[in-house]
Amino acid sequence: MPQAQIVKRMGAAGAPPALGGLGRWCDRHFKWLLVAPAVALILALSIYPLAFSLVVSFINYDFQVPGHGFVGLKNFERVVLDPVARRALVLTAFLSGASVAIEFVLGLLVALAMVRNFAGRGLVMSILIVPLFISPVIVGQAWTLLLQRPFGPTNYILSEILGRDVTISWLTERPYVYISLIVADVWQWTPFMFVILLAGLTSIPPNLYEAAELDGVGPWQTFTAITLPHLAPMMLLALTFRLLDAIRMFDTIFIMTAGGPGTQTYTASYYLYTIGFTQFHLSQATAGSWILLFFTAIVVVLLVRRLLRVETE
Amino acid sequence: MNDRQRRDFQAGLAREVDALLRGEPTRRDFITRFGQMTGMLALSGPMLASMTDWALAQQALALADPATPLGQAQALALAASTEGPTDGSAYRAAEAAKQFSGVTLNMTYEAGLQALDPRNFSGPMWEQITGIRSNVVELSNPDQYSKAVAEHIAGSGAYDVLDISPAWTPSLADGGVIAPLDDYIAEFMNPADLDDYHPLYKALPTYKGKIWGFFDDGDMFALYYRKDVFEDPALMEAYQAQFGAALAPPKTWEEYAQIAQFITDQRAPEIYGAGHFRKAGSPGNQFDFLQQFRANGGQLFDADMKAGLASPEGVRTLENMLAANAASMPGNNELDAVSLWAAFLTGKVAMIYSWPPSGRMAANYSQSATAINFIPMSQIAGKVGYAVVPGNPEHATGFNKALSADSRNPEAAYLFMQWITSPPVSLARVMLPYALRDPYRLSHFSSDLYAGLFDGAKDYLINLNNSANVGLLDPIMPGAQDYFLSLDRMATAVWAGADPMASLETAAAEWDSTTDRLGVESQKAFYEEFLKLPGSTADNTVEKLGMAVNLGG
């Protein structure tokens, strides 16, 4: 814009209005005002509840027991001494470990299969990642419909394939109930592994593979010497994200087994939900949440440390 | 302003003006727009709330065809509220409530089908008669307890009328969440209407000598069986030959399992002997165990408040239940109440015991409402017989209408409760095809209008009445949820192969832990109060107390 035109428009704009006391204060603290809403939100929605939950875990906060007296470590003691809680913790480790391991292997295989271009690749990829966009509650409901006796078609299909009558109670019988939960989780979250690992695979420089081919290196050696080392950071990232999510496994259990039979499919999250929102022992549930947080933090620290080490290497 | 300040000001001004002329946002723009957005957010809240209110607003009162029994019952309810008899509870409540015209009553209801009645029928009718609006707050069943408590702690006065499980009455009364009704009853109610409750239900809202609500849902379990199967000559002959007895609805739980197994052996896979809702988290396990355990002579607690589950009666109960499971349709242990209804209605099962809607669904009456279209049409209409569950049937949950102690309009709220549970209005409500409220007044059981709803409705009502005569109540005491959860865990563990006695011991330990947490002496006092109620034990039923209601049949 020409200088003369700018001067002309400045004249037309007139002098800026004088700032009052509040205006001057706002002007001085403008940067703080900008971040204040975000800080207030974090304080209100994260920091305050966190601090309050710490308080609640040391007092009586139970809809059925009047008063909010200080009870020391009683709430923690109740959780630690509860065999259901201990078992739930072990089951959480087993289910999350098994699910994530299977998802990782399947995700890697699919990513390796999809890394090269072929006709219809886009369509196949779109279909493969559909489960990611489905709510876990819906996934649980869908698998329940498939597996639940007598209406679900699974046993019928298996009977047809195997040529004998299959009468498995997939949702109420061990070990099938664990298989069902793992299958539902793997179905939903393998695409997550696949997407991240595929991104990692496509970022490996192709000239490394060309050089290996020229040198006559076999496919397995190429995979172990080139693919794996280059993919390792992404693998660790995918495993970290997925494991942290799997530890919270709740939705599919809520829908598919309701924790049963007995308490056989109580994960830590489901246990805390039951204590807090079925039995209304809120302080015990809060204490349990802190214990779970402690164990989760150990996993997080180990994984993140390893992740950072890989990145620096 | 000195020279330097002037230079700084002009430089700053020049930067701002340049930015303005380039169309870049300035701090002033930002603050202005931020203010506008905040204002819009502040406005959008009430706007959204009013739109939500509009979307969820009550329907206009639409009555059923006056030629139908339901239409006649609704017309009678309206007439009883507006014309009298003038000493009727409905009329007196409606007249007294007119002074509160314009008030809105906030009332909790279980989300879903339960809320359709106040939205479509009773709420609009009450507003038409009194000018009092009703705001239905739909909550999940556990939230009907927890939200009521939370709002009471907050002192919000958010609710006026609470729909509560009778089991919650002691803790809500002692916690000050609900208010006693005795003074209001003395002032407004026709005492004869209290006597119209079946004796099992009349005492249910009574706690520590005061009345804490009006009973409003006769959730009595009953046995529904296929008459065509039980009257099949070939089956009758085979049963007689095998067991030396006539094939008839069972009187004991051993007989029940035996008959179920017999029918399964004879007719499966076309028809199985029985089906049950045994899925974990489905309340069938707790209700079934409670009714059979007590019918077998089991005591829930001993004199020291130690759980009495781990006993020969407990083992016998679980073994009976296992035998019934084995005789049932495939997938029995994975069924919930709706799946079981589907199996029964499609003709796959010869016997079920469940809540009263089973009879209305079997006759295809419920399915006349679109709200119930998730239930399949009955293929067994006209083929269903009704019988009392062997031993003592469970009154499985039910609902009380209770007055929130924090209500800002307690009198209006009370009057609504009196009106909605009054004989003519409650009759019209329990006759709604989509209703999950089941008959509970003597005038319901003997109603000719109800008896005209579907073929066999008269027998259905008589059976519900007879079931209430020998029915058992869920334990009404604090911690009931915890006790129930332990039973469900125990049962599903046993279905999955756990040892019955070991499971009973685990459940008993959980019960003792719950009792310890809530205070042994305090729980003992609650339990003693519960034992005073008719139907608290198999030795203390309405019939055993000599108060049975005989409707014939």
Mean pLDDT of chain A: 90
Which value, in Å, is the CA radius of gyration of chain A?
28 Å
What is the correct CATH architecture of the largest domain in chain B? 3-Layer(aba) Sandwich
**What's the CATH topology label of the largest domain in chain B?**
D-Maltodextrin-Binding Protein, domain 2
Structural class of chain B: alpha+beta
Biggest beta sheet summary of chain B? 4 strands, antiparallel
Q: What's the rounded overall pLDDT mean of chain B?
A: 92
Kindly estimate the percentage of residues of chain A that lie in beta strands according to DSSP: under 5%
What is the global morphology of chain A?
extended
The percentage of residues in β strands of chain B lies in 5-15%
Q: Low-confidence parts of chain B, pLDDT < 50 over ≥5 residues?
A: none
**Residue ranges of chain A: pLDDT <50 for 5 or more in a row?**
none
Share of residues in helices of chain B:
40-55%
- How many domains of chain B? The number is 2
- Measured on Cα atoms, how large is the radius of gyration of chain B? 29 Å
Q: Number of helical runs of chain B?
A: 25
CATH level 1 class label of the largest domain in chain A = Mainly Alpha
Write structural notes for this entry.
The complex is a heterodimer of chains A (313) and B (553). Chain A has helices at 3-13, 21-28, 30-56, 74-81, 83-114, 121-128, 136-147, 154-162, 176-202, 206-214, 219-246, 251-256, 268-278, 282-312. Chain A is an all-alpha fold and 313 residues long. Chain A folds into 2 domains: 24-48, no CATH class; 74-312, MetI-like fold, CATH 1.10.3720. In chain A, helix 13 packs antiparallel against helix 14. The longest helix of chain A has 32 residues, at 83-114. Chain A is extended and about 95 Å long. Chain A starts with a helix and ends with a helix. With 553 residues, chain B is of the alpha+beta class. Chain B has 2 domains: 69-218 and 397-461, 3-Layer(aba) Sandwich (D-Maltodextrin-Binding Protein, domain 2), CATH 3.40.190; 222-396 and 472-531, D-Maltodextrin-Binding Protein, domain 2, CATH 3.40.190. Chain B is built from 25 helices and 13 strands. Chain B has helices at residues 3-21, 27-55, 69-82, 89-97, 116-130, 141-154, 169-174, 182-188, 191-194, 199-202, 227-230, 233-243, 253-267, 284-295, 312-326, 337-345, 357-362, 410-420, 423-430, 442-445, 448-451, 457-470, 480-495, 500-518, 520-531; strands spanning 104-110, 133-139, 161-164, 178-179, 206-207, 210-211, 214-215, 222-226, 351-354, 384-387, 394-395, 400-404, 472-473. In chain B, helix 4 (89-97) packs antiparallel against helix 18 (410-420) and helix 14 crosses helix 23. Chain B is globular and about 120 Å long. The A-B interface holds A 1, 6, 9-10, 13, 16, 26-27, 30, 62-66, 148-151, 167, 169, 171-174, 257-264, 274, 277-281 and B 13, 16-18, 20-21, 27, 31, 142, 145-146, 149, 171, 174-175, 279-282, 329-331, 333-334, 339, 342-343, 478-479, 481-482, 485, 488-490, 492-493, 495-498, 503, 517-519.
